[in-house]
Structures are given as C-alpha cells and as structure tokens.
Amino acid sequence: MVKVHLKTLSDDDRPVFLTGSFCDWQTELPAFRMTNLGAGGYEFTFPELVRPPFSYKYTKGDWSSVELDASGWDTPNREWIGRVATRSDTVPHFMTGGKAFDPWMSPGLKIWPEMTMKPLRRKRRVSILLPAGYGNTDERYPVLYFQDGQNIYGGGSVYGDWALDRKMAIRAQQGRRPFIGVVIDHGAERRRAEFNPYARHREGVKYLQWLTTELKPEIDRHFRTLPDRRNTGLCGSSLGGLISLYGVAHFPDIFGMGLIFSPSLWVSQQVYTDAATIRSGLGTKIYLYVGGKESAGTAAAVRKMNRVLREAGAAVALSEKPAATHSEAAWSAELPFALSYLLDESTV
C-alpha cells in the first residue's frame, strides 16, 4: 500500500479529498477523504488496489475548491511514478467558491517614487503594501522590509516576482496575521555595491544606515506600525538576503525577524562571525531557505549559517528544497511558509 502526507497553510473546516486517475477524477468520494491530523496536517493510505503510476490532485470537495500554488494560480496534475511507498506534499492554498481570493482582500498600495537616501546621495522608489481593510480600522501592524523591490510584486521584472501582493491577499483570505510590506527597489548597477556591507566603500553599511535612520522612521510616522523589534523584519534573496542577514545581526534593537532566501554567503567569511554576534534571549526569528539546484556550495554554506545562528541563540527555521533553483519562482513558492513562520508561529 502507498501513503501520502499533506501539509497545507489553507486549513479550515472543509475536509480534504484526493482525486485522480484512480477514481475517474471524482472529487468527493468518502473512500478518498484524508484524515485530519490537526495543525494543517493530513494523511491518507490508498486502498490495496490503487498503486502507482497515477495522476492526482487535492480538493476540498469539488473543483471550485481545488488546490492552488502559492500565488493562487492553477497547478498541473501531480504525478506519482515509480515504487515510492510514501510521499509528502504541500498545498499553500485552496480555491474557495471558484476563486483564489476575494478581490477585496488585495492589499492597498502607496508609492514614494523618489525617496532621498542621504548617506548614499541618491534616490530610490519605495512601495508600501497595506493590508486589506487598513483604512477601516485603527489596528497597528508588523512591518517587513523587502529588498529588490522590482522583483517582489506586480508582475516583477524579466526575472519574475515573488507575487507579494497576491500572497498578502491569500493570507487575508485565510485569516492570517496581516502586515505592512515595505518594498525597496534595488539600485540597478549599484545593487551589488549597496547589498555588500563588506566591500571597500561600505555602501551596504550606508544602505542600512538609510533604512534604519531615515526610511523606517518615515514609515512609522506615516503608517500605523508596530515599531518594536519583534514586529520588524528584513527580507531578501541572494545579495538581498546577505544585506538582510547583516542588518538583523548588526541592528538587533531594530530587527527581530529575518527572511533570508539563498543568501550570497560567498561574499565574505566575516558573515559567519557577524551572525554569531546575534544576542541570545532576544527572540530573534530567522527563516533560512536554499534550493538544491543552486550553485555549488550554496546549500552547505546555508547549513553552516543555520548552525551558527542557532548556537548564537536565534530561533531558526531551515528549509531546503532539493529541486529548487536560484530564482524568483522558487523564492515566490517558499514565501508563504516563511511568512507563516515569522508572523503566525510562536517560538516561545
């Protein structure tokens, strides 16, 4: 017999069913209803007569509640090939009533097109994504600062994007904790310099000086934020992950969260020494992620960073995806799980 384990972030009162080529794609057969283990976990053991290969999907009872990807888009059929006896799947989201999310759940958007960066003597576009219903409440919100803004929302660049706007709408649909996303465009040809705090001209240090002494105070002044460290985080990938990790380590009184995807740890061995200085007892939460098909040594470096951060006293979640590449698509797929860890889960 073959068995499947499912983990989903879209957990509600609706039961989860398996459908596929083994049942002519019928969607609500009691024989293929999964067992609810709680906390978004499900499992199912197939009848003896059902053996791979077969195609399958997850639904919550019909095709208007079928599984979706992390951005709320349709997914291809899953394929179970070979003699693997047990599989583990994840479903970031399920459709509700034929929709990924209610359009009213979409975040609001404010854009500051040319914010002055005094330490760097240049300007930068900053986008602020506000949670659904922001204007109808007095609630204050945690804030996450995202690097590489061109690749974060609204379709992104030629490299794709993280679809943060859709992720925020889906989180609102799921009833998860809302937050403000501050999305900072990178400096194009100055990106490598601005995100490297170890380079000779120290533009990375000046970038963080701007973010902490100019941008954050302005965000806290104009929007209803929770300005303390436990509710403030830095987010980034590749070089953006490097500068975010550096910021969490060097500004522990400001940043208590770090979303660090595929960081460019090759830039300097000093990054490990800096990470070791994170003070224990502060409750710093860090989500580390790496793909198995990134450049040689990347996964080993991230595992080493995981050990260093844990030894320093940080609460770290490490996620490795063996088939994932160094790409916006991979980081977009991982984003919901990182947000869930940083904003929804208690480490106390």
Automatic annotation (TrEMBL):
Q: Does the keyword Transcription regulation apply?
A: no
SUPFAM superfamilies xrefs: alpha/beta-Hydrolases
- Source organism, top-level taxon: Bacteria
Keywords assigned: Hydrolase
Read off the Pfam families from this record.
Answer: Esterase (PF00756)
Does the keyword field hold Kinase?
Answer: no
In terms of Gene3D superfamilies, this protein maps to: alpha/beta hydrolase (3.40.50.1820)
Q: Name one GO molecular function term.
A: hydrolase activity
Which PANTHER family does the record cross-reference, listed alphabetically? ENTEROCHELIN ESTERASE-RELATED (PTHR48098), FERRI-BACILLIBACTIN ESTERASE BESA (PTHR48098:SF6)
- Name the record gives this protein: Predicted hydrolase of the alpha/beta superfamily
Q: Which organism is it from?
A: Siphonobacter aquaeclarae
